[in-house]
Amino acid sequence: MLIDYLFRLPLNILFLFSHSFSSFLLPFQLHFMQRAFVIGLIAALLAGIVGSFLMLQRLTLLSDAISHSVLPGLAIAFSFGIPLIFGALLASIISVIIINWIRTESRLKEDTAIGIVFASFFGLGILLISVIQKENKVDLNHFLFGNILGITSEDLQNTSIILAIILLFFISCYRQLKCYTFDPIMAQTIGLPINFLQSTFLILVALTIIVSMKAIGVILVLALLVTPGATGLLIGKSLEYVILTSSIIGVSCSFSGMLLSYLFNIPPGPTIVLITSLIFFILFLIINKKDSTTDSKLF
Fold it and tell me: Considering its fold, how many domains does the chain have in total?
């Protein structure tokens, strides 16, 4: 009996390994998971690129306002049967215009204007979606927390177009945007189109948020925009390195988060966000420890 068991042990181990490996490969063979992986990776890549500039320009709060301001646009677009991307983009542009209008026409500071618009648009969006939910049986959670596993081929096509537009802008205007990001006064002095750069960048932020919403929803989209960029700033010594690092971190976390969500039957959006946050805190503690050790050696 013992000899027979020892003889079969390698075969049993091989069977368990092959079964586990086939379970691991199963998500990549399903069409809806393939679309989910592509959308998630594109969203993470764009968030890493755009988020790096957001962090350096200190526009984190504005991006949060834009992400929550798209809700009314989503609700209205859904009601009239038009593509959600157009409603979300229009709502985000209107929110930015209103923020700038309040800031320039009153003594209120930008953060106050952002808070007012953020709360107003988000409240209106929740109200409209709640009404639509009763009439059309739409799940509110899909808007708030994303529905990456319900992505269609049309969503994939729209996302690919957005990716091409954003990459084209950053490739063609990278030097100008870099100059404006680090020194707006010098950029204005040398005659760079400041208004064009700022307006176009905010529109691209809105497009990135719309893409990311499919992956993790309105509530958590700020984490995907900010956390990889913040992690890149911790270890990056140049803008190019920060963009590269944040993009790699975002893509890796998106891939692993979706894979874990399928294997353990947990929501993909929160899983992606938690992984990115975990990586940030681990690197933060490591770098902090190194800095404190270096400082202690100096005295």
Answer: 1
Residue for token pair 């992505």: 151
131 lies in some domain = yes
For CA atoms 89, 90, 92, 97, the dihedral sign is: positive
DSSP code for 173: S
Answer for the pair 224, 202: CB distance below 8 angstroms, yes or no: no
153 lies in a domain? yes
Number of H helices, E strands in the chain: 12, 0
Q: Residue 28 falls within a domain, yes or no?
A: no
| Domain membership of residue 264 as a residue range | 37-287
pTM for the full predicted model:
0.77
Could you tell me which of 193, 162, 186 has the C-alpha nearest to residue 86? 162
d(CA 103, CA 109): 6
d(CA 151, CA 157): 11
Tell me if residue 223 falls in helix, strand or coil: helix
Mean pLDDT by 10 residues, the chain (299 residues): 48 46 62 79 86 84 80 84 82 84 79 84 85 64 66 80 89 89 85 84 84 73 85 85 89 86 82 90 84 48
CA distance 274 to 115: 26
φ/ψ (deg, to 5) at 173: -115, 20
CA–CA separation, 163 vs 258, rounded Å? Answer: 20
- Residue 173 near residue 211, CB atoms below 8 Å: no
Amino acid making up residue 115: G
Q: Do the domain assignments include residue 145? A: yes
Residue 193: which CATH number? 1.10.3470.10
